[in-house]
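Troubleshooting entry. Yesterday's outputs looked truncated, so today I'm pasting the complete records for two proteins to confirm everything comes through intact. If either block looks cut off, that's the bug. Protein one:
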Amino acid sequence: GLLGLCLRKVFVGSAEIPTSKLAMIDSGSTILAGSMESAGLIAKLLGMNCYIMVKTAVGIEKVECDDPFGFEMAITDCRTKLDPIIFQAGGTPYELDTHDLLREIHMELGSVCILDLFGVPGFPGGVLGMKFMRKYYTVFDFGNNKLGFAEAAQNDDSICQADAYLNVKDRSEDKGVHTVAPTVTPSPATNPPPSPANSNTND
């Protein structure tokens, strides 16, 4: 699924990040993405070590995270505790913490953690991919141009069955329902099944 969402504000800890108001909720993306400037500033505020790939024996070169030309990889020690990134939409904060933001990779000198956030040249908006959607269960209501979010249950085999007939309009108390402008028109087969009348499912 792919829909656009209006973000009111983005924070790293208590520091507000100047960024585009438009973010794409994209189940086809595994990461978070933003403009070169916003991604660089976020990585810098998180205290990451940023690198670009170069054709040398080492293969990488350290750069400033907020370098205008951007970075290709932001790394930190896996024991580091990061400030959360907070996306505010419709007055509701959606927080991603250290566990949500970092991915461990194994290198010759040991394991490090990489930030799953990248800057995209010439791209003014943001992308909230599966890094966001793993934490916040997302309902795409294409028929009514709405998105619904609820914090996802973890390690619960019953979640799919429990949410099979989820009605985004009936779940507004969980995290929020936001009117959006769809960027694609899904086929009828991709729409969620209708909810039975007066249903009330719980995660």
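Protein two, checking that the full record survives here as well:
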Amino acid sequence: HNALVQEDKPRLMDINYRAKATDEIPITMALSLIAANKVQELFKKNPNLERIETAVYLTTAIPQTEYSKEAAEHLETRLAGKHTITVYYADTKCVVDINVKEAKVTQEGKTAMLYLSKVEPAAFKSYREHYGKDIVFTNETTSLHHDIGNGTTETTYMEGANPTTASGLEKGIGHAFEQASKLYCAGMTLSLNRHDFKKILNT
């Protein structure tokens, strides 16, 4: 909670600040998802949860253009160990103690290719039916990944499951929402951040 709030207002991650390995928000979001999933799992058996514990092995990834061995090790150190997250639901709350036994950080794109190299052929049934051919993955397979995020759009060239070259464009979905919200508010005494503007679009 403290990582997401400043002066009693939700803090948005600066889409122009490229430091996922050092910012508090990605860590808080990852741990919050673990806590929420655990509460959902146990809530079905006991709706009167107050405090629970869970232990996990965690793997995550940071953009290829931000990745370095030092950055990965820094984030691994911050994720590993014991954390406490409070999950609020309805008019009650549950405290979740999370023990991250081990954390591994790799490059975005690599995890997807590792999955493709290990997954059973049946997973590509719909692909096969649509395109009339199979996906063949080897260590010599080359691919080009485009990852459109909130603050950047990353392009990564892969050889097998190994990223070899990457570039990042300082434009993403977050920039599009910011520009759209400015156009929406033009001529009005109104100011919206990108998340507030998303809520309007979803209503």
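Both blocks look complete. Sanity check on protein two: Helices lie at 24-43, 69-79, 110-118, 125-131, 173-185, 194-202.
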